[in-house]
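Sequence design from tokenized structure. All designs in this work follow the same two-part layout: the structure record, then the generated sequence. An example of the structure record is given first.
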């Protein structure tokens, strides 16, 4: 496949084309996409995938641009899969984040993909996992994935990355709740952004709050300690501590085999996801095309049968 060769040669236009292909829901593209991924998976690179999650407006995009610029200046090769919330309004325009990320997008060592955030998935869309396989094969050192921290997308994002980072703002007491709600399970690093100007004091306080909340969290054996870091994205301060922490955690995880186990578990997660998706679409097709459903719904309304009778009926039919 010509596209495979070009991706392996880090041809940016072809990488973009490949990602468009894997994101496509067109059944015709699906076959080609499967072939592409099957080939590329045989040419693994050395990418470390880092997830950046956090509530809206906390500065995820600004941080990624700032940190990204810092890394590119240090000669790292960086790919960014960003979400562009503004596209929800403009129906798919990718101008928003791309314009802001313009500084690093000029570098030959970066690849930036801005996708409209797709509803509740908050940026992790069908194809994000495939996109990271493409970028890994293309030879990037780091793949950054930006997601809005909402429910399922967080789980999906955590299952896509080697390091998961939660970005918070100064005085974000609400997110502290998240610590109790299980975000600690996923997040390896907590980044308190906006540590500048008038917000400095509040930012330090937030960092200590996170640190003390984390001290109640019992660390499992063989697990890297979770770190709380203070940064200012607009002043590009604290970026050295972020890269150092990322590198330390990766080193620790590789040494303790956590790195490989995590990737294995993630693969199991995605295999199950794929099976679930395929069953779902086949089931939808089965039920969706059926006038029986309408008749049975009427019967449910009349109280003749229950909703469970209907679901059992369709499930039996499907399984046959
Ligand atoms: N003072 C200060 N403001 C910042 C910093 N980083 C981001 N901001 C501001 O915070 C606002 C939101 O920044 P974004 O980068 O768009 O935040 P986001 O998390 O990507 O937002 P969504 O993508 O909408 O979820 C902007 O007005 C930024 O200028 C920082 O380090 N310091
Ligand atoms: Mg953003």
């Amino acid at each position: 496949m010509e596209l495979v060769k070009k991706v392996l040669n880090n041809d940016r236009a072809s990488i973009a084309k490949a990602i468009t292909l894997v994101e496509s829901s067109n059944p015709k593209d699906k076959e080609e996409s499967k072939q592409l991924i099957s080939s590329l998976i045989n040419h693994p690179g050395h990418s470390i995938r880092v997830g950046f999650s956090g509530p809206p407006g906390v500065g995820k995009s600004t941080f990624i641009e700032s940190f990204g610029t810092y890394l590119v200046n240090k000669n790292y090769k960086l790919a960014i899969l960003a979400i562009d919330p503004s596209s929800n309004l403009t129906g798919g325009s990718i101008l928003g984040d791309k314009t802001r990320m313009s500084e690093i997008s000029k570098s030959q060592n970066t690849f930036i993909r801005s996708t409209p955030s797709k509803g509740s998935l908050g940026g992790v869309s069908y194809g994000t996992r495939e996109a990271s396989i493409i970028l890994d094969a293309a030879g990037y050192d780091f793949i950054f994935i930006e997601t809005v921290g909402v429910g399922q997308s967080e789980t999906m994002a955590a299952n896509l990355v080697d390091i998961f980072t939660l970005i918070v703002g100064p005085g974000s007491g609400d997110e502290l709740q998240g610590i109790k709600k299980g975000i600690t399970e996923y997040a390896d690093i907590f980044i308190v952004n906006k540590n500048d100007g008038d917000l400095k004091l509040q930012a330090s306080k937030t960092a200590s709050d996170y640190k003390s909340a984390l001290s109640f969290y019992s660390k499992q054996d063989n697990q890297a300690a979770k770190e709380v870091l203070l940064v200012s994205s607009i002043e590009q301060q604290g970026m050295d501590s972020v890269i150092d922490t990322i590198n330390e955690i990766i080193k620790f995880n590789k040494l303790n085999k956590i790195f490989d186990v995590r990737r294995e578990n993630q693969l199991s997660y995605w295999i199950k996801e794929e099976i679930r998706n395929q069953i779902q679409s086949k089931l939808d097709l089965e039920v969706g095309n059926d006038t029986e459903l309408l008749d049975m719904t009427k019967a449910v309304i009349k109280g003749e049968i229950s909703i469970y009778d209907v679901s059992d009926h369709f499930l039996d039919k499907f399984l046959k």
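Residues 75 and 318 are 54 Å apart (CA to CA). We note this feature because it recurs in several other targets discussed in the main text.
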